[in-house]
Amino acid sequence: MNYKYINIYNNLVNLTRNKDLYINLSSSDTFSDRLTFFLFHFAFFLKVFKKNNDKKKLQEIYDYVFKQIELSIREIGYGDVVINKKMKVYINTFHSILNKIDKWTGLNELDKNKILSNFLFLNNNSSKLTNYFDKYELLLSKNTLNSLIKGVIKLKI
């Protein structure tokens, strides 16, 4: 396997491990919740970098990230049939997230909260999470794709 995009994947995983993200969840922290946060981070990543970057490179990053997700699910111990079903669900969820956040910048806070609530079981106050993803999008837009690929920048919010 080509590890060319490992820095991007590791940055996304580290962002997903931020305990502050899980404060607004109304349920306990699960693998599914963590993966949903991961998919949100990745969706914002692709949203920001799709404008000014090579589509082939972004497709390679997409393929790499989903291969890593599949490997993570295998490590949990699921069989091939279950993995295929789960990957189908996760990919569909990701594309749904990507579709919803495509217009994120132009939305008001209430609409942004609705998007997050569609995918996560949140308490009433999801403003912190909305602000978090606003800051994340801004942080991504201030960096270049190549600097993230090379691992020059470690994303922290």
Provide a quick synopsis of the model.
The chain is mostly helical.
What does this structure look like?
This protein is mostly helical. It has one domain (6-150). The protein is 68% helix and 0% strand. It has helices spanning 6-16, 31-49, 55-76, 80-101, 109-119, 127-141, 145-150. It is globular, with a radius of gyration of 15 Å. The chain starts with 5 loop residues before the first helix and ends in a 7-residue tail after the last helix. The mean pLDDT is 88.
User: Biggest sheet, in brief?
Assistant: none
What multimeric state do the chains show?
single chain
The stretches of 5 or more residues where confidence is low (pLDDT under 50) are none
Q: How many distinct beta strands? A: 0
Beta-strand fraction estimate: under 5%
| Helix count, DSSP H or I runs of 4 or more residues | 7
- Written as H for each helix and E for each strand, in order along the chain, the element string is HHHHHHH
Distance between the first and last residues' Cα: 30 Å
Helix content: 55-70%
Radius of gyration: 15 Å
The count of domains is 1
Rough outline: globular
Mean residue pLDDT: 88
Q: Which structural class best describes the helix and strand composition?
A: mainly alpha
Keywords:
mainly alpha; 157 residues; 0% strand
Topology:
Elements: H1 6-16, H2 31-49, H3 55-76, H4 80-101, H5 109-119, H6 127-141, H7 145-150
Helix pairs in contact: 1-2, 2-4, 2-6, 3-4
